[in-house]
Amino acid sequence: MIKASEPMHILIAPDSFKDALSAREAAEAIRRGLARALPDAELTACPLGDGGEGTLEAVLAATRAERRECRVHDALGRPRQAGWGWIGESRTAIVELAEASGLQHLAREERDATRASTFGVGELILEALDEGAEHLVLTLGGSATNDGGTGMMTALGMRFLDADDQPLPPGGGALDRLHRIDDTQLDPRLAGLTMEAAVDVDNPLCGARGASAIFGPQKGADAGTIHHLDHGLARLADCMAERLERDPRNDPGAGAAGGMGYAALAFCGARLRPGIELVMETVGFDSLLQLADLVITGEGQLDGQSLAGKTPIGVSRRACRDGIPTVALVGRLGEGWQAVHEEGMTAAFALADGPLSLDDALSRCTELLTDRAESVARLFTARPA
């Protein structure tokens, strides 16, 4: 308990709330709520990301990276402006998959994992190579895709061909027809590029815990489509296995972002790292944590799968190590969420103040987040009369 004479130091470290708030916007909503109850408290905002949407923004805010913009194609092949980060002194580029091929750029009725492509991610990498990048941080998460990274690699010069030696159409739906991979036109600059890929899940590429089965439904795939997509990713891995010394399809994180984790491993020789650890390291989270009496984190949903590497769990593990209580404010508490207490989470609260439709919950997210933050602050400073 904080002594009454001492100001409370609270570290605000949320991820984004998908389809509602960016991590920065969520942090500001929480800050307003805390300030209502604790006007004298020291409030430090540290928006985070675990590899998905908003990770680039969090890294740019905490480093000397420059934000660059370029024209790319979204997951359905439509032109859009996308950002990436550049640290000139270390020749390092930061590419966020969701900037180009993110689910947030598609309306719900447009989501189609059979057609969605990561081609735009490859276009961002080409921009980085043109700038002279020697190291690339690729953040994976929030994708609309299930193409095993074939779109990205197509943009970089690789060809994925059917039995008639014709290029496959974009998207994961065509991968079951893959017959041959041609890398004779692959951009030669990739050979001199080292890559780290930030992932927020530990799923393998295929099977019951694979990319298609676990994440396909949120990308518009029904049961039959999931089976078809999973078969296509397996076919891709079979074709690549002939070229590789070791088959990485079952590596933790290979199923991230519709198989982009696998692509980073198999095509680019990347090192996969938990996204939240990479981001916390980059933003100097540990030094901020040393001053904190309480940490408030959050994201759209907290459930049993969050333990695989989502932001609130990464935050709570780090804070628990230093004996600092952590509270998560989330849009929804899903199945198995109680397991978060075993990972150092002090408490978790859903935002809804009554029965709400999804649309109402999204539209009121700022208001609800601010109100819950105020309630948490009042609880942590409560004293007997």
Automatic annotation (TrEMBL):
GO terms for biological process: organic acid phosphorylation. The keyword Transferase applies. It comes from the Bacteria. GO terms for molecular function: glycerate kinase activity. The keyword Nucleotidyltransferase does not apply. InterPro entries: Glyc_kinase_flavodox-like_fold, Glycerate_kinase, Glycerate_kinase_RE-like, Glycerate_kinase_sf. It holds the Pfam family Gly_kinase. Keywords: Kinase, Transferase. Belongs to the glycerate kinase type-1 family. This is Glycerate kinase.
